[in-house]
Amino acid sequence: MMRDDSVSELVLHGQNIGVPGGMLIAYLVPVMGGLTKISLAFNELGEEGTKAICEALKQNKQNKILKELDLSGFMKTNIGGAAGAMHVADMLGVNGGLTKVSLALNELGEEGTKAICEALEQNKTLKELEISGNMTGNSNIGGTAGVKHVAKMLGVNGGLTSINLSGNQLWAAGAKHVAKMLGVNGALTSAKMLAKVAKQKGISLCGIQRDQTTADFSHKNLKPPDAILLASDLSQTVVTG
C-alpha cells in the first residue's frame, strides 16, 4: 500500500513518529510517485529525521507531483530548530515542484530564517510559505533580526503569493520593513504579519489613522500589495466611506 503510486496524500499529523519515523518516510518518498501532499507536522522529527526527508526530496527533485509539505511544530520545534532549517533550505534550493511549505512554530531563529530566505531568493515555484510564530510570545524567525532576511527575500522573489509571519514579534519597525518590500513584490496577494498586535498597538502600515472616518483610494492605481497594507489598517479604524 505504501509503495502504491495511487496514494496521493501522506498525512501523519501529530503521530509522534520521531526520528525513526522520519527515516522511514525518507525511505518511502522516492517510491511513492503519486504523492501530492506530505504532512508530518507535530512529530518531533529532529534534525536527523528532517535531514533524511529533505535528502530524499532532493534526490526526487525531478518529480514535480509533490506540491505540499507540512513540517510545522507545536509546543516545540518539529525539525530541530535552525539546524533542521538548513536541510530544508538546501532542499528548497533544488526542488522545483513544491508550491506550499509550512514551517510554523519551528524555532528557526535568525540563522535558520536566513538560510530559508536565501534559498527562496532563487526558488520561483513556491507560492505559499507559513513561518508564523507563537502568539503568546515566541518568535519563529528570530524576531526583528530574522524579519530583515524575510524582507530581503520578498524584494527579489517573484513567485510567492502568500506568506504568514504572524506571531513573530515584528512590532512596528519590523512590520514596516516587510511592508516596504511588499511594494516591489507584484505577485504577493496575501500577507499575515501582525495578527492581533496591530490592533493592540495601533500600528499603521500605510498611514491611515485609527480615528479616521473617511478615505479615498480612487485613481491611485493600487496593486495587490497595496491592498494588503490597506486591509491591515482598515481592520482597526472607523472608516465608513
UniProtKB/TrEMBL annotation:
InterPro entries noted in UniProt: Leu-rich_rpt, LRR_dom_sf, RanGap
Keywords: GTPase activation, Leucine-rich repeat, Repeat
UniProt entry tagged with the keyword Manganese: no
A Gene Ontology cellular-component term: perinuclear region of cytoplasm
MF terms in GO: GTPase activator activity; small GTPase binding
Record flagged with keyword GTP-binding: no
SMART domains on file: LRR_RI
SUPFAM superfamilies (UniProt xref): RNI-like
GO biological process, one term: nucleocytoplasmic transport
Protein's name according to its UniProt entry: Protein nlrc3
Organism name: Chrysochromulina tobinii
